[in-house]
Amino acid sequence: MSEERVLFTKAMKKEYTILLPNMLPMHFKLLARVMNSYGYHAVLLESTDREIIDYGLRYVHNDTCYPALLIIGQFLRALSSGEYDPDKTALLLTQTGGGCRASNYIPLLRKALAKAGFAQVPVISLNLAGMEKNPGFKITPALLKRMLYGVYYGDLLLNLVNQCRPYEKTPGETKALAEEWVEKLALQMDKGRSVPYRTVKKTYAEILRDFEAKIPRAEIPKVRVGIVGEIFVKFSPLGNNNLEDFLVAEGAETFMAGLLDFLMYSVNTAVTDARLYGMKRKSARLMGVIYRYIHKKQLDFIRLYRENSHFIPPVDFEKTRAAIKGYISEGVQMGEGWLLPAEMIELIESGFRNVVCAQPFGCLPNHIVGKGMMKVIRERHANVNLVAIDYDASASRINQENRLKLMLANANRLAETEKTNQVEPT
User: Domains in the chain, ordered, with CATH?
Assistant: First the structure.
């Protein structure tokens, strides 16, 4: 039996604090500021301690999806901390509407809230599929556009941090500059509701030039490691035990595609459904317009990279879509679907021959399109190092890190062999 739903009303908008779970710290800080500029009071939860897992295990069945356990645990820990008034607090969670278990997180969260004594707390679904509506929370076109700006900026900072941090001559300099820009961008988001696109492009170019000028980088060889996987575990330091920090500390350069790629994949799903299966043609036409709008912006940002810096820009999503030809169909859309092997192939062809697939234990879609696609990818690409790492409340961090160390050792061994076998030009 499902828990009774508590609506988030118009009156609550003025009085309630809305808590956001943390997946991408820089992105979500900006998204929270966008919401606040539209009259909400959004707060990003930034705790990462073990208590989150303990709360999740206490109120969620331990066989549930690991990201759900973490998100629900983080919400319940916050509500139990005394920092927030449960009678004046709401929770916000995204919902895709697809076949993944993530679409069922909200009923699971409501059940956990009731069990923990917080049944009065409203849960807001952030979705574009019309699954749940709340009188006090509406995604207007203007709000959605500003949220997209937050995604653009967040992806840029994520990419620049990944390209600078492993080579920075002064440790900590890259992250400090990124945080400085997060604050500047947050202020930009707070300056009323009119942020024209030309301002976004101008700011984008300024960020690129700033990182180019202010972060001296050493030209030393590094093992290059790409990261793919289930969206929460891939991005969230809480979900992947600070995977990027660990790899960088071990002497690697990391890379992962940004949140925009996942958004474009999600929007394109409706277009693909109509093309392959004849489903929801009217919705597909709208999503096709949205996809072309977002894709055009992506091409603008790729051009800005080339005009303002020597940094490597993100890959055109149309190239990402084309990467799966001969491997898997675009009709495979459960979870991260075809996007996951596409990102693996894209990384390998870009020089990242070592790829970590971060997946929740028991996540069937990811095991199929992630670990299940590794054999055929290895067969078609020589000397690649693909490793699937499962993340779960009961998984051993030591075992995870030992597997990563083995991957890095193999990568270094291969690099030494290739260096030894190089023939000097005559």
Answer: 12-134 (3.40.50), 222-257+315-421 (3.40.50)
**CA terminus-to-terminus distance, the chain:** 77
Sort residue 219 into left (φ over 0), alpha (ψ -120 to 50) or beta. Answer: beta
Query: For 129-197, what is the HEC assignment?
Result: CCCCCECCECCCHHHHHHHHHHHHHHHHHHHHHHHHHHHECCCCHHHHHHHHHHHHHHHHHHCCCCCCH
Residue 171, Cβ density class (10 Å: 0-12 exposed, 13-18 middle, ≥19 buried): exposed
Residue with tokens 């500059």: 177
List CB contacts of 28: < 8 A, sequence separation 6 or more: 20, 22, 44, 154
pTM of the model: 0.92
Distance from C-alpha of 352 to C-alpha of 332, rounded to nearest angstrom: 24
Q: What is the pLDDT of residues 137-169, one digit of tens each?
A: 998 888 889 999 999 999 999 999 999 999 999
Angle (CA) 337 339 343, round 5°: 140
